[in-house]
Specification:
By secondary structure, this protein is α/β, with parallel strands linked by helices. The chain is built from eight helices and 20 strands.
């Protein structure tokens, strides 16, 4: 084992969660490295569709120690957010190694071994700083769709220039699906299939949102009320994890005005065409899967999972896996609160995890 591959802590994932963990590890004087599969810090944002803007304003998009450099009510583009993360890592001189995809995490005696291709890393602690959003949810019957229909998932969609002539079907009516459908409706007849989860009652760029939603209501709900330590949060948590979020920017009226047609659930394929649950065939040329993502932690060889997800309490509390000392998670949806998977919430979770690492280090 090379000396420069042995650390107190290895952080896997160099997005906002991993960088926040790195900030607190640096403050604690830990020897650590952050491993990220992307070629450049922030690429997870850069690779999303071109017109994407964050659903939250700049006041809620800063990481610990560095506010987002824009007016409080400005909604950053995805590239601006990516550049902010890159600047954040540079400002605090965080040791991020890009282009390193982790293949396996396992125990090696009292330490953890992290395998990335032919390279091995060793550490006393490993922090998995990744969101649940890893593998697109695409049904098996997608393989039966006619080859003449262009299929993309929401991570592959960039802009209207990718699309073929003819209609578009967007499957998944969450924030991503609704925004993509609204965009494709500008040049293509567009169908939208997916559950209606409702919308927030304000325009995100309107007066009431600026006055009370983002400064008061949203932080209070997401950080104080909806946590695993509150009865309301514990009751709401399973539904909030499995159900899509409320629509933030796009409203049902916006979709209707743009001519987007809502259709029932896509239940299968007939004659190469997507078929709704009530038997309607949709003659489309483009199909964009935007039904969300599922986690994939099959590369972690440790007994801490239930159905591919980190175990719930008591094995896992606020990212600390008590059954596997030295293993931690940050960035997962509702890890501690509703804000745990977004920029505004990762800092608190990162601080908690690093405090736990420091406390364990002082005991040993």
């Amino acid at each position: 084992m090379k000396a420069n591959n042995r650390f107190d802590t290895i952080v896997i994932g160099g997005g906002q969660a991993g960088l926040a963990v790195g900030y607190f590890l640096s403050k604690a004087g830990q020897s650590f490295v952050i491993l990220d599969a992307h070629r450049r810090i922030g690429d997870a944002w850069r690779k999303r569709w071109d017109s994407l803007r964050l659903f939250t304003p700049a006041r809620l998009n800063g990481l610990p120690g560095m506010r987002y450099p824009a007016p409080a009510n400005y909604f950053p583009t995805k590239n601006e957010m990516a550049d902010y993360l890159e600047a954040y890592a540079a400002r605090f001189e965080l040791p991020v190694r890009t282009g390193i995809e982790v293949d396996r995490v396992s125990r090696n005696g009292s330490s953890f071994q992290v395998k990335a291709g032919a390279t091995r890393f060793m550490a006393d602690n490993v922090v998995i700083a990744m969101a649940n959003y890893q593998i697109p949810k695409i049904p098996d019957f997608s393989a039966e769709i006619a080859p003449g229909i262009l299929q993309l998932n929401s991570k592959e969609y960039r802009n209207l220039g990718q699309l073929r002539e003819g209609s578009v079907l967007v499957v998944g009516a969450g924030n991503s699906g609704a925004e993509i459908a609204l965009e494709t409706s500008k040049t293509h007849r567009t169908y939208l299939s997916g559950r209606d989860n409702g919308t927030i009652p304000f325009r995100v760029d309107g007066f009431w949102a600026r006055l009370i939603l983002f400064p008061v209501i949203l932080p209070f709900l997401a950080n104080v009320i909806l946590t695993v330590d509150s009865p309301v949060g514990r009751k709401a948590r399973p539904k909030l994890i499995s159900k899509g979020d409320l629509l933030f920017r796009v409203k049902a009226a916006d979709l209707a005005k743009a001519g987007v047609e809502r259709v029932p659930k896509i239940a299968g394929v007939q004659n190469g065409l997507p078929k709704t649950i009530d038997g309607r065939l949709l003659d489309v040329s483009n199909l964009i899967w935007a039904a969300g993502f599922r986690p994939d932690f099959s590369w972690i060889d440790l007994p801490v999972f239930e159905d591919g997800k980190p175990a719930l309490e008591p094995k896992h509390y606020r990212g600390v896996v008590n059954s596997e000392p030295g293993l931690y998670f940050v960035g997962l949806k509702f890890l501690y609160s509703q804000s745990s998977s977004v920029v505004a919430g990762v800092g608190r979770d990162a601080r908690y995890v690093v405090n736990a690492i420091s406390a364990q280090t002082s005991v040993t």
